[in-house]
Amino acid sequence: MDFGEDRDSSVDFDGDSDNDIDFEDADVGFDTQDKDIKPRKKAFEVDFHVHSPQDIQGQQDKQVEEVSNILGQPLEATAILLRYSRWNKERLIEQYMEKQDEVLDKAGLGQDVARPPRLQVINGFMCDICCDDSRGMQTFAMKCNHRFCVDCYRQYLVQKIKDEGEAARIRCPGEGCNQIVDSKSVALLLSTDLMNSCRYQELLTRTYVDDKDNLKWCPAPNCVYAVDCGVKQKDLHRIVPTVHCDCGHNFCFGCTLLDHQPTPCPLVRRWLKKCEDDSETANWISANTKECPRCRSTIEKNGGCNHMTCRKCKHEFCWMCMGVWSEHGTSWYNCNRYEEKSGHDARDAQAKSRASLERYLHYYNRYANHEQSAKLDKDIYLKTEKKMTQLQSSSGMSWIEVQFLDNASQALQQCRQTLKWTYAFAYYLARNNLTEIFEDNQKDLEMAVENLSEMFEKSTDQLAALKVEMMDKTTYCTKRRIILLDDTAENLKNGNWKFNVELV
């Protein structure tokens, strides 16, 4: 597949790239005539491909050569033109054929791109940067004729590449000049070692990936791979495009955050912002404050008196019944007028406000609990190899036979991550006929995960006897996760879910 080509916005939801084990594949009949039948792919899977820097460089070179042959331009100039057009070669060729001079000028090439720049010694020349006018000094200028000494030009390029991280669109150092320094000129001025130390080629490759909508770098630390996926930004309200890099990192292609299935990116952004703003104080607010019946400002009671005055709108009310204080007569510290209308309306509004807060806390606490449990399970995972070694020596099992512990640990991590995000999904979910099915799937997965987590914490001498049960529970957890994700993704893709916020 030519991953550098622009793609149609349609997505093949029957991708085969997810690394989950499919425990639900239908048995193929013995009399089938089709030897190449593939298992049904899940609704939550998307097609993607992982590419190394060498793959990406090879694709760049191929596109530059193809377009160079069509336009009749040198390879270096063609590369600048393609970067100018964000590697959309069809659009570049069309615009070039219609308005060649304008395209060359906007790309930073000028008119005469066939004459390559070269080093020259010019008698009587003085560099405008360092004011050096030594005899025999080598100078360099592109076709814009902004000439400087080689040492100043080299220092300028090193600063741009090494300090500023620029490589694709380095402009001539001449004031106000739009001319782009091509790769052949950079190679002429900088040694190979200096280019490598400045990461020049690496920066060019990074620019290529950044310019392509269907390519993204894996966000894992020190990972050099890029992932190619056809999911477009406009589809992120109905697809959660989880991809799996060859380095082992699973992330969302849409937002590059850690895998957050089944919650789509727009809801993830809302949820994380809400958690950041609300969660640290929500419990305290719920327990210690009330809202002003008039302006809804949050008020803390800081004394014994029930006569409250809102500092914002100056409304006077009773802390106990939330009614207007003027209706209380002289009952300054004891409220016995529960049935008054103003108090009833205020309490009703207060109850609705608190119910909204309590609803948020319900989902947030469960979200945070799975996040914390995942961290604890990860600590267990880090000790897994030691447990496997101990089990191997104490029970006489082979290293292959004790791999069930590693499989269980990985399943726990994956299921915890999914469960965590099901609560963010459920918070924004409007109730309909499908909600109960979702909550049942969520409950089944949660119970299975807790059972597996409990077994995993048994002592080493008990683990050997639990091997079969633990393997069965690992399989069951993975199956329940797949069922939940598949059902949720299918309904999301078909627009069956209704949310209480706009997915934008």
UniProtKB/TrEMBL annotation:
Catalytic activity: [E2 ubiquitin-conjugating enzyme]-S-ubiquitinyl-L-cysteine + [acceptor protein]-L-lysine = [E2 ubiquitin-conjugating enzyme]-L-cysteine + [acceptor protein]-N(6)-ubiquitinyl-L-lysine
UniProt biased composition (Acidic residues): 11-28
Keywords (A to Z) from UniProt: Metal-binding, Repeat, Transferase, Ubl conjugation pathway, Zinc, Zinc-finger
A Pfam family matched in the record: IBR_1
GO function terms (MF aspect): ubiquitin protein ligase activity; zinc ion binding
Record-stated family: Belongs to the RBR family. Ariadne subfamily.
Cofactor(s) needed for function: Zn(2+)
Protein name per UniProt: RBR-type E3 ubiquitin transferase
Pathway named in the protein's UniProt entry: Protein modification; protein ubiquitination
GO BP annotations, alphabetical order: protein ubiquitination
Protein source organism: Corymbia citriodora subsp. variegata
